[in-house]
């Protein structure tokens, strides 16, 4: 094994080492301070790729990529001292370069891999980190050919930027004889990566220890750089024999994030421009999937939304056995529901994906690549630019047009990627796939129509309820008059005047200022229900809300109820409903069907009116008992669980709906059962779109607003 040190000047190396301990930006925080909240890590940026269509590795790819990176410094962020907030590249492994570096002229593509790592901030832990990597490689039989520090040129940066960089340690290793295919080699590398991450991301003494890339196909080089500094900074990229056929890049404008080298992009399989507004939901879903498989997700400290997306993408490929393009399409599907131009096989494929995959919604422009595939995709809303240009030799997709000055006479076509669209180049087939070609190709690989028929049934296809059975789904079993039940559900005259009645009169919400204008609960003597505590959580931005009617091309309210496929629950179809807001006839249909398990759980408790502490304990016991009952149902059957406060009475008070939904949801996640059951909140506490949003946001799959149903019946009776 060769051990090489970087040929950087001693003074520069000394400055780098000495700066490690005293630069705040090099140590990521998971603590809130001021207006910064690490849980809201998102960023906007510039992305792009360039690839040689013939697959020949040449130095010209790096030269043209540098031209593209120099054209978009405005898409990155820069401090007053000129320090970039993050930029980097991902490139295929250069065969000629690594043959020279390792002294192995017999090295072949697919038979060696490269791992690039940021080492721990505490230099005393570097030796331990190296031993962890060596042990993980040895466990998989991956013989180390070379270990070195990636050489850099600090003179390429502004003086203030040097101390913000982290050294990259590189391992080059050989494929074991037992790995006869590249796919087998990939899996051996992935297993080693998981072992390394399990220690790197969980031991506080190893903070900063981070794998940039670990692959037999590509390597990532990145740092706290401006886009035009990336190629000059890494000296490997100036070597004339460093020839590659594909490069994709990222430069980051950090809006509300803490810039840090490890969260700079690209990541291992992708670069992402935008932000993932569904990130919290996606994280909960991924955690539920991991627990259902008796595993857990180990994430780096301060993980951004883009980093989480990359981790999920790699998991889909390695653990779910999906190819890269299928994984990208299933995780970030187009808006297919109302697109009549899609073929039936494509619609069946996308609907099948929707039954088990939580969408990653942006705005998001995604560049993805694994050394054989390189592509670009926009999410279904298409709110980030991606421009395309193709010549006889090159295919490029970038955030802006004209980043590379190809002579006009060489350009075959220019264009852009539209909402929900994609373009990728397959180096194995030596051809490009556009959106429709790619979707048709993927849909032809499996009989998704048959899979779909077995996995779901439309609510509209369930047997109709006879007219004589269309009364209330269940008779009221309590001792309160209707007006008393309103009070029990925390409603008052304002609930009618400003929330329910306007919607029932004209089918629209009452127009008002964005947000909830009433006093917050802590400053009001009107409780108003737990949902009111979260009124401002849904009104923090100036963007208007998406309209499911006027923007039907880009969104849907469709929901699938029941256990998700492929997670070990007894086989039963999911019931697909057009909207998460159910009517009493919908509830009757769901109750009367027998294919999907269905059970009701009362969210009531016996209140202790003269002892607040005892009442609190009674609420806690009731919620714990409810969580246990729903968990047992999920474990034994799975399906649809209805949480209902229909039978509220003098001796049976309603538990706070939002607390109950959240508690049951988290209990199911903790026990690895969340994907085996869908929660329907049948509650009189729901009186507005905000109540619906909070119930859905905290874990319900659908709601049946009893209070609104009562009010509609009351208003109808008054007109008769």
Mean pLDDT: 87
Instruction: Return residue spans where pLDDT drops below 50 for at least 5 consecutive residues.
Output: 5-29, 538-542
Beta content comes to: 15-25%
Taken from the alpha-carbon principal axes, the silhouette is elongated
Number of strands: 26
- Major sheet strand order: 8-3-9-2-14-13-15
Intertermini distance: 90 Å
Relative helix content:
25-40%
By secondary-structure content and strand pairing, the structural class works out as alpha+beta
Q: Give the biggest beta sheet.
A: 7 strands, antiparallel
> How many H/I helices?
20
Give Rg in angstroms: 28 Å
Pathway: Amino-acid biosynthesis
Family: Belongs to the glutamate synthase family.
Domain Glutamine amidotransferase type-2: 45-428
Keywords: 3Fe-4S, Amino-acid biosynthesis, Flavoprotein, FMN, Glutamate biosynthesis, Glutamine amidotransferase, Iron, Iron-sulfur, Metal-binding, Oxidoreductase
Name the descriptors.
720 residues; alpha+beta; seven-stranded antiparallel β-sheet; 20 helices; elongated
Give your account of this protein's structure.
This protein has 720 residues and is of the alpha+beta class. The radius of gyration is 28 Å and the shape is elongated.
Topology:
Layout lengths: L1 E3 L5 H10 L24 E9 L7 H11 L16 E6 L2 H8 L9 E7 L7 H14 L4 E6 L9 H4 L5 E7 L7 H19 L9 E6 L2 E6 L6 H4 L12 E8 L16 E5 L4 H14 L12 H14 L5 H8 L12 H13 L7 E6 L3 E6 L8 E5 L2 E5 L12 E6 L5 E5 L4 E4 H9 L4 H8 E3 L23 H7 L4 H14 L52 E3 L12 E4 L6 H9 L5 E5 L1 E2 L6 H25 L2 E6 L8 E2 L2 H14 L6 E7 L5 H9 L4 E4 H14 L1
Parallel strand pairs: 1-5, 18-20, 21-23, 23-25, 25-26
Antiparallel strand pairs: 2-9, 2-14, 3-8, 3-9, 4-6, 4-7, 5-6, 10-11, 11-12, 12-16, 13-14, 13-15, 16-17, 19-20, 22-24
Helix pairs in contact: 4-6, 9-10, 11-12, 11-13, 17-18
Pathway: Amino-acid biosynthesis
Protein name: Ferredoxin-dependent glutamate synthase 1
Pfam family, one: Glu_syn_central
């Amino acid at each position: 094994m060769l051990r090489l040190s970087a040929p950087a000047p001693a003074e520069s190396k000394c400055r780098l080492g000495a700066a490690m301990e005293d630069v705040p930006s090099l140590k990521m925080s998971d603590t809130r301070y001021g207006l910064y909240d690490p849980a809201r890590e998102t960023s906007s940026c510039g992305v792009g790729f360039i690839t040689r269509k013939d697959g020949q590795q040449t130095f010209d790819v790096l030269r043209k990529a540098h031209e593209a990176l120099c054209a978009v410094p405005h898409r990155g962020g820069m401090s007053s001292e000129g320090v970039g907030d993050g930029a980097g590249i991902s490139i295929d492994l250069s065969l000629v370069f690594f043959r020279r570096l390792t002294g192995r002229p017999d090295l072949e593509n697919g038979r060696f891999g490269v791992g690039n790592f940021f080492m721990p901030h505490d230099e005393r832990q570097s030796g331990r980190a190296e031993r962890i990597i060596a042990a993980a490689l040895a466990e998989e039989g991956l013989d180390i050919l070379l270990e070195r520090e990636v050489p850099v040129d600090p003179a390429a940066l502004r003086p203030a930027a040097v101390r913000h960089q982290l050294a990259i340690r590189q391992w080059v290793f050989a494929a074991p004889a037992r790995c006869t295919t590249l796919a087998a080699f990939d899996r051996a590398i992935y297993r080693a990566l998981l072992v390394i991450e399990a220690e790197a991301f969980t031991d506080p003494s190893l903070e900063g220890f981070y794998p940039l890339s670990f692959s037999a196909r590509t390597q990532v080089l990145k740092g706290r750089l401006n886009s035009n500094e990336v190629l000059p900074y890494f000296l490997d990229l100036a070597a004339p024999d460093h020839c590659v056929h594909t490069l994709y890049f990222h430069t980051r404008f950090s809006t509300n994030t803490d810039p840090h080298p490890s969260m700079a992009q690209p990541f291992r399989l992708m670069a992402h421009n935008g932000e993932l507004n569904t990130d919290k939901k996606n994280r909960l879903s991924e955690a539920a999937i991991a627990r259902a498989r008796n595993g857990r997700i180990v994430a780096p400290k301060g993980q951004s939304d883009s980093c989480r997306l990359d981790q999920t993408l790699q998991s889909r490929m390695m653990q779910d056995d999906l190819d890269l393009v299928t994984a990208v399409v299933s995780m970030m599907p187009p808006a297919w529901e109302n697109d009549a131009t899609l073929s039936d096989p494509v619609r069946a494929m996308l609907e099948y994906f929707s039954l088990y995959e939580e969408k990653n919604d942006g705005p998001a422009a995604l560049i993805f690549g694994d050394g054989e595939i390189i592509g670009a995709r926009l999410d279904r809303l298409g709110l980030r630019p991606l421009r395309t240009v193709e010549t006889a030799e090159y295919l490029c997709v970038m955030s802006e047009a004209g980043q590379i000055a190809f002579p006009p006479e060489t350009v075959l076509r220019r264009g852009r990627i539209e909402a929900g669209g994609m373009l990728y180049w397959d180096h194995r087939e030596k051809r490009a796939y556009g959106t429709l070609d790619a979707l048709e190709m993927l849909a032809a690989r499996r009989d998704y129509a048959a899979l779909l028929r077995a996995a779901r049934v439309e609510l509209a296809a369930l047997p109709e309820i006879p007219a004589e059975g269309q009364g209330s789904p269940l008779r009221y079993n309590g001792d309160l008059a209707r007006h008393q039940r309103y009070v029990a559900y925390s409603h008052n005259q304002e609930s009618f005047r400003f929330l329910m009645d306007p919607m029932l009169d004209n089918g629209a919400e009452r127009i008002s200022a964005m947000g909830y204008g009433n006093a917050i609960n802590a400053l009001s003597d009107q409780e108003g229900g737990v949902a009111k505590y979260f009124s401002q959580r849904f009104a923090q931005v100036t963007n208007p809300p998406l309209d499911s009617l006027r923007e039907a091309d880009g969104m849907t309210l469709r929901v699938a109820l029941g256990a998700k496929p492929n997670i070990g629950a007894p086989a039963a179809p999911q019931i697909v409903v057009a909207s998460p807001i159910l009517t009493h006839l919908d509830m009757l249909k769901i109750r009367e069907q027998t294919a999907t398990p269905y059970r009701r759980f009362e969210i009531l408790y016996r209140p202790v009116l003269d002892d607040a502490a005892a009442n609190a304990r009674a609420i806690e016991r009731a919620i714990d008992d409810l969580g246990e009952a729903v968990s047992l149902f999920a474990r034994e059957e799975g399906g649809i669980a209805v949480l209902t406060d229909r039978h509220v009475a003098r001796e049976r008070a309603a538990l706070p709906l939002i607390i109950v939904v959240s508690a049951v949801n988290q209990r199911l996640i903790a026990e690895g059962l969340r994907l085996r059951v869908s929660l329907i909140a049948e509650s009189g506490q729901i009186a507005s779109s905000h109540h619906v949003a909070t119930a859905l946001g905290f874990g319900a799959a659908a709601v049946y607003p009893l209070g609104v149903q009562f009010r509609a019946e009351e208003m109808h009776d008054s007109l008769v």
